[in-house]
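*** Residues and shapes ***
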Amino acid sequence: MKKYTLYIILFVLWANCSNAQGFRIEVKTPDLPVDSLFIVAYDQVRKQFKPIYGVKYASEAVFSDNKSLVPGLYLIHADTNILVEFLISDYNNQRFSIDIKNNDAFFYGSDENNANMLYMKTIRRYDQQIDLLNANYQKIQQSNASFMEKQAKVDEIIRQSQEINTQKLSYQAKVVEENKGSLLASIILSVMEVPQPPVEYYKDRTLYYKYLAEFCFYKYDFSDDRILSTPLAVNKFRSFNEVIFELESKDAIPYVLDALRKSHQASPQQYYDLFDYIERDFGSIKSPVRKESLYIAMLHYAIDSTYIDKYRKRRYLYELDIIDKNHVGDKLPNFNLIMSNGDTTNLYDIKAERLLLYLQNPDCSTCKKVREKIKEIDAVLAEQKITVLTVYFENDKEMWQNYLQNNAFSHWMHAWNYDLTIEEKKLIDIRSIPSLYLLDKNKIILKKDININELEVILE
């Protein structure tokens, strides 16, 4: 029994030593007029490449450390110029050499990286063939040939293009199979093109973008966190957001929740990264393309997730408490006001065909800039019969009175929520100041969280 235990201890020690063996990469180059060579890694947090190791330039240079490289995509830079890229798939076998010459590279001791070099060359040839067909298409369109002649040539280009794409997909599938389990396989899967939708989908914009949303992640492997150490994950998330941007919230919600569900089931880190990326574009109060109902659906999904850290859950609950109110079409809650002339009233008693409600802190620098921007379109507001009402909702009477005396535009209405019910009872979704709401005469919300840059467009 003791002997068996000893074997286990020795095995664990051996495994730890193997994982801690570090890396050694020898780089051979022809003589270059540079000072240094660098290993450059992709920073998951900042979403950019940064140097992590550097050596003085020599035609035979060595990078080494007793710590292993984290699996991911790396570059070798000569000063700031890229010489070659290489992949690290696991914590073993991080000892190889790279022979770089004639704008080519060969890896000794790394079959995966040789496969990657061959893959990139082959894909480049396929892409060049497609580029040539595109150029021929442009020439045909600009030619003086008859419609029938043009159509015959275009049909042939389409046939050739489809054949090349079929060959390309077949080749990619072959490389994936030959390199199963490697980072190279995951990278190829992440960039494989979405199958073409049925022809009728091109006639219906919503159907077309629904199709792209459904298939955006069809080959992407959410379970492989190594892909986060490459730019490909964020590129995929960006492509997904570009498709979601083209859909109405009600149409986008099922596809966003499905993508979150797939990432959620596979990897906490990919789930968080995807959620954050979608939230930045469609949930942030600062985003001009935000989709409120989509973000609310995302928050509900996140709060019900099986794993979510307590800090995120607290933030999501807070966000949901603020945002899940005052929707377009709702009537804004009433609140008490004291006007600049000293009269007390409430929001519902203010008579206006339409009301631009401007919730602000008079001294905040952004509020001052936005006030000036709104003033520039006073003529448009008057033409549209829109009354501007500024509302201060915090507890500093002296600040408000100073604002009335020195900064308030005389042709606007100005008020203070003197009993502080807006803030204390959280009557209004105010995630940042200033906050702009456009109301009709019955105080029904026509538009909320208006970005000043989109105000003129909304008015048009």
User: Anything to note?
Assistant: The longest helix spans residues 111-142. The first strand starts at residue 23 and ends at 28. The two ends are 84 Å apart (CA to CA).
